[in-house]
Amino acid sequence: MNLPSASDPVPDTTAATQTGAPEGAPTKNTAGDYSAMTYCVAVRNEAGLVFLSDSRTNAGVDQINTFRKMHVYEVPGERVLVLLTAGNLAISQSVASGLKVQMGTAGEKSLANAPNLFSAAKIVGEAVRKVHERDAAALKEFGIEFNVSLILGGQIKGEEPRLFNIYAAGNFIEATPETPYFQIGESKYGKPILDRVIGGQLSLDEVAKCCLISMDSTMKSNLSVGLPLDLLCYEKDSFEVKRRAQIDGKDPYFTSLRERWGEQLRKVFNELPDPGYWN
Amino acid sequence: MNLPSASDPVPDTTAATQTGAPEGAPTKNTAGDYSAMTYCVAVRNEAGLVFLSDSRTNAGVDQINTFRKMHVYEVPGERVLVLLTAGNLAISQSVASGLKVQMGTAGEKSLANAPNLFSAAKIVGEAVRKVHERDAAALKEFGIEFNVSLILGGQIKGEEPRLFNIYAAGNFIEATPETPYFQIGESKYGKPILDRVIGGQLSLDEVAKCCLISMDSTMKSNLSVGLPLDLLCYEKDSFEVKRRAQIDGKDPYFTSLRERWGEQLRKVFNELPDPGYWN
Question: pLDDT (tens digit, 9 = 90+) per residue, B32-87?
């Protein structure tokens, strides 16, 4: 599992410990706290699972860095697990790191041998609690809340695909047909389009399109969420990652989607009648 | 100025002082703190000003009440001032009440005699500071932040229409051609549509339509923002309120706008191509 593996960008720990928050910044960007500085969304439906994450983190306007927030673990034919992280970067990296150590330790319960997704979510929750035990008191002394939020989804042989949202307290909830998606990080700008579209019988590609539009709305209204994006569509019962893309600023599909969505939205807006309350 | 006048609904002070916040509620709903429980937006452009506010406040899911958040002061031919409020209801009512007392006191600086909108914004800021002096310490003992946010806009003879956003500290900023709108309360869900549409040469009715769609997106994603709505369009240099509407759940225009916007959005969504990263 690349949690974080040698191929991941090396975390710039100086950035995470500097206080770069400008006056009036909405969140405290100290001690690795990038609370509202990310956006991840994951959807489960009949066809499988879709995961999308941005990769921007910042500690004030002059400190913008790129960290991957999507971690993938795959045993072809047996299991695919995807973890998305938001919140304090130091905490989420510690959690990911702890999970990786477990997987390399013989005889230890880990994401590599969890019998089902529920057990896997418990393992992630326990990893969060371990970091809490170690770091929460020290963070509190600096006035920093213990802030992390995770999405875990995937499929383990013998089960349907499942999707969980794991909180800072280590507890978690599972997606249902009525609540088929989870968002973490800066979630509000991109929620209306999900609420309007997700829910019907959509293909994975349609769900991916909806998530990309949701991401576009978020990026348009919040500069701290940014490219590149990581997109993964998991096809139910495939037990293999076949559809994964990294989307940067030059990506022709995403560029065209953003332009056309904006244009069409303005067109629809213009075609709707104006209010006539006073005519 | 109906700040609040005898014709306003009588505030149910029991609701405001009860602790009705359910477990896991995002904000503390005690001592009149309805932080994220409202949405107001105001836009200034070449044609004039548009104001829109909802009227829902709640203290937990079983405590939903309706209070007006739009206060209008008009001297036909001379001035029109509109105040929108969000945040702790006890604080915003105290501010509105203080402003009303000032207007009735001979020789006192008030919104009735402020020579320009900037002075009017200062008067509102000072009213906020007075309530802060009186209440902030007591609120702090209950762990409640002094939380209020206001929008003041209008036109006073001799000036162009102006629009201000006044903070809890009593300081304020003014809208500019580059930043032509302000939102207070639960602002994120409804921001993307404003960012996409507002800015061009729009009529007041088009701006009102955009604000109503922004409100619809907010209401769709957050149950705590709700009908009825207060809409006011102020035509530049009219020095008179000619276009004002209260919009409830049976309003045919708003009902049709919501339905058609949702339908058209899904239509545009369906017409856009799916991602083809893995084909």
Answer: 554 447 899 999 999 999 999 998 655 444 555 666 789 999 999 999 999 999 98
d(C-alpha A37, C-alpha A58), whole Å: 7
The conformational region for residue B106 under phi > 0 = left, psi -120 to 50 = alpha, else beta, is beta
CA distance B193 to chain A (A): 9
The DSSP bridge partners found for residue A164 are A152, A174
**Is-contact B168 B35, C-beta < 8 A?**
no
Looking at beta carbons, which residues of chain A come within 8 Å of B191? Answer: 189, 221
Give the chain B residue nearest A265 (alpha carbons).
B265
Closest CA to A50 of A194, A226, A228, A266: A194
Q: Are B269 and A210 in contact (CB under 8 A)?
A: yes
- Option in B192, B244, B264 nearest A221 (CB): B192
Task: With a cut of 50, list the residues of chain A below it in pLDDT.
Answer: 1-30, 34-36, 59-61
| Cα torsion angle, B234, B240, B246, B251, sign | negative
Q: Which residue from B50, B47, B24, B28 is spatially nearest to B37, judged by alpha carbons?
A: B28
Q: What's the complex ipTM?
A: 0.81
Give Cβ neighbours of residue B236 (< 8 Å, ≥ 6 apart).
Answer: B46, B47, B48, B49, B155, B160, B161
Picking from B117, B177, B107, the residue whose alpha carbon sits closest to that of residue B151 is B117
Asked if A272 and B266 come within 8 Å (Cβ–Cβ), the reply is no
Question: pTM of the entire structure?
Answer: 0.82
Q: What are the DSSP E strand ranges found in B157-267?
A: 162-166, 172-174, 181-185, 229-235, 243-247
Q: Chains A, B: CB contacts under 8 A, how many? A: 122
Q: Reduced to 3 states, what is the DSSP secondary structure of residue A55?
A: coil
Domains and CATH numbers, chain B: 13-271 (3.60.20.10)
Q: State the DSSP H helix or E strand holding residue A45, giving kind and residue range, or none if neither.
A: strand A39-45
